[in-house]
Amino acid sequence: MAEQPKAKYRADYKAPEYTITDIALDFDLQDTATRVVAVSKVKRLAEQDAALQLDGDALTLIRVEVNGESWSDYEETATGLSLTKLPAEFELTIETEINPEANTLLEGLYKSGGGFCTQCEAEGFRRITYYLDRPDVLARFTTKVTADKASYPYLLSNGNRIAEGELENGRHWVQWQDPFPKPSYLFALVAGDFDVLRDKFTTCTGRDVELEIFVDKGNLDRADYAMTSLKNSMKWDEERFGLEYDLDIYMIVAVDFFNMGAMENKGLNIFNSKFVLANSKTATDTDYQGIEAVIGHEYFHNWTGNRVTCRDWFQLSLKEGLTVFRDQEFSSDLGSRAVNRINNVRVVRGPQFAEDRGPMSHPIRPDKVIEMNNFYTLTVYEKGSEVIRMMHTLLGEQNFQAGMKLYFERHDGTAATCDDFVQAMEDASGIDLTRFRRWYSQAGTPVVSVTTDYDAEQKRYHVTVKQRTAPTAEQEEKQALHIPLDIELYDEQGNVIELQRNGEAVHHVLDVTEEEQVFVFDNVASKPVISLLREFSAPVVLEYDYSDEELVFLMVHARNEFARWDAGQMLLAKYIRDNVTNVQQGKAVEFPASVVDAFRGALLAEDLDPAFIAEMLTLPSENEIAGWYKQVDVDAINKVVGDIKAILAAEMEDELTAIYHSLAQPSYTIEHEAMAKRALRNRCLSYLACTEQGNALVEAQYQASDNMTDTMAAMAAANSSELACREAQMKDFSDKWTHDGLVMDKWFALQGANPAENALAVVRETMNHPAFDLKNPNRTRNLVANFCGNNPVRFHAKDGSGYAFLTEILTALNSSNPQVASRLIEPFLKYRQYDEARQTLMRAELEKLAALENLAKDLFEKVQKALGQ
Ligand code: B3K
Ligand code: ZN
């Protein structure tokens, strides 16, 4: 490797020496040679006559002027432009040329399909012009875009359209002005030919906002749900958070080539088309839920992210953790709170905990970063949201909202830190968050071990709580955290026992702040059953020695649905662990009738939401199970999960069949109730696929289906149970949808998750499918990332073929799109959790990658950490 990329440290933050208050951008769009003229008002903030260091990447410099005069006191450096001998205040003109067509990184200005679009967060603006590309420099942007009118009838940027005109050569231009000062990462530009869905939202103060969703021509019939979700988001933010939209127009553009889910650019969100386009024929219920969540998320950023932004990128969780919390609350208020919570918790307990254990482990506010794009992580987002949720639990809704209000009063229009946020929460509530702040600086997952003791004579119940956090990569020492531990006690009949001590009521959320604490409760008439970590009140691993009977009791009697589900998961976990040992010892998988009965009880419970029952009957993923082990046995885990599923299916076949048929619906709607019924019906189908009637049922559902949810449920069942009908379905689907990459992604995902022995060969062959394109991140994620990340038995094939495949892909993507490569490499980072032979093979692949010429920063950072260098 030529030059080793350098790390940046949070502790090194320095306020900018110059700032830019206004910038006028002028784009002359051409596929391979776009000209950008940037005229900025620059002000020196530093006392001394400092050099102005502008960031720049992959730019061709055309000219530099200061106050309208050509300027020669500058130097092009490896990372930008350094200007000297500058006055204290001046107008800086910089003209650059860029090549959008060659921009396969999808960062900066690039071409997606026939159009132009941008992605600037975190550091993409520097690929457009030389600039102070850091979030604490906030400027008012005016943007003029000129392009060929026939090819690009729509020219969009942030803010309000202020002027437009026609040119003689078939070109036209539009000028936009964003009245809100913003950092460069929120800049956006789009040019293209679209169909537009228009609507209107009247805000709580009676202002009309124009809503526009831009989609590729022919896709207008797939934009309605996104529009509904946008209006719901705007209304919800007013009602729950008292936050009103602030511009007269809100635009969303759907593009096919996009590295992430979406981007919250001020007034002009750019979305991965996956999170906009949906109708019943092309999208599943899960897709609809994803659209609602992501539309909400980007909209909510307008206040948490845009109005108050981040001082530096180490503070990313300030906007992301908070905005994830907000979008989770939005989905929970509109749909099922329990089901939303369950799915969010699955992500934290599965992949986030895995991240915490691996070489990339970092606090939600990282201390050291080589490539910022590597830190848009589950830790910053999902654990970050859990940290906000814990504050919400500790403060309560009212205090929390008072804290939000104070936060906006103090920081609106500025770039803030995570500390600023906690301070506002503390000041508004009067609740001491000193120890709580450690969640921001400490990496790793705490283990909370609980033991209980009932004193029948004194009628007292003792709950002893210990916490410990194992050392993580780069952080040896760990401190005790402030952990809100939500509990409830039940008597034998399932009645709630009021918590009290010395005659006073005790709140059900215990403040665990020490390494070891004992909580004592009086007047407990008989030995209770305890429900612990209700609602997953903290992102921790809970250890408590529940008996089967207690778990079955909680599955029925716990007052809240989440706790019931969690009890079911703990019961499953016990038997999965025992059976992994059985399988390793050559014994058969055993699953007692009493445990089956507990799940049968859940299946038949008439008072429960079918969507919730579907979750009760969902086994933990093989990846989540892998996380329970120091050394993972992929084959044993796969066998146990398969066998338990088959046992449940066989034992409950009659009930599953009856419920499956009873839940059929005459037509498709996207109301919660209809979705819930489909969720349970399709969960039943996934079990029934393991029985003798499986092939016939799955085939019949595929044939009869008039919507993508049921179609995909049938295909997924056929795929995972390797049914005879699989081949014909796969062919039929591909014939029907080859023209539509977004729909074909579902088919690619099935090929990636294919349990068949020849899965890798099929995946390789699938890469030649006309709808596949390694340069499109969605295609690559569904086929390749799904194979490597979610098909453990095939990826970890003993001959190392899966590993070699991943290295081939990573090598190709290292030059075309290192951001996507860096996400794909994740399975390799866990190599230390596998047996010796597999470790050796994976390590060798990592070493091959380390030796690559021009290894991108993104991969460099992860490879280096994984190898422990
Ligand atoms: N803020 C963007 C993420 C940008 C990713 C940069 N690599 C999407 C979001 O979290 O809303
Ligand atoms: Zn976000």
Automatic annotation (TrEMBL):
The UniProt transmembrane annotation reads none
Supply the name of the protein: Aminopeptidase N
Q: Name one GO cellular component term.
A: plasma membrane
The Peptidase M1 alanyl aminopeptidase Ig-like fold domain sits at 444-545
| Residue runs in coiled coils | 834-869
Stated membrane topology is: Peripheral membrane protein
The family line of this record is: Belongs to the peptidase M1 family.
Q: Which PANTHER family match?
A: PUROMYCIN-SENSITIVE AMINOPEPTIDASE (PTHR46322:SF1)
The reactions it catalyses are: Release of an N-terminal amino acid, Xaa-|-Yaa- from a peptide, amide or arylamide. Xaa is preferably Ala, but may be most amino acids including Pro (slow action). When a terminal hydrophobic residue is followed by a prolyl residue, the two may be released as an intact Xaa-Pro dipeptide
Q: Provide the species name.
A: Photobacterium jeanii
As recorded in UniProt, its EC number(s) are 3.4.11.2
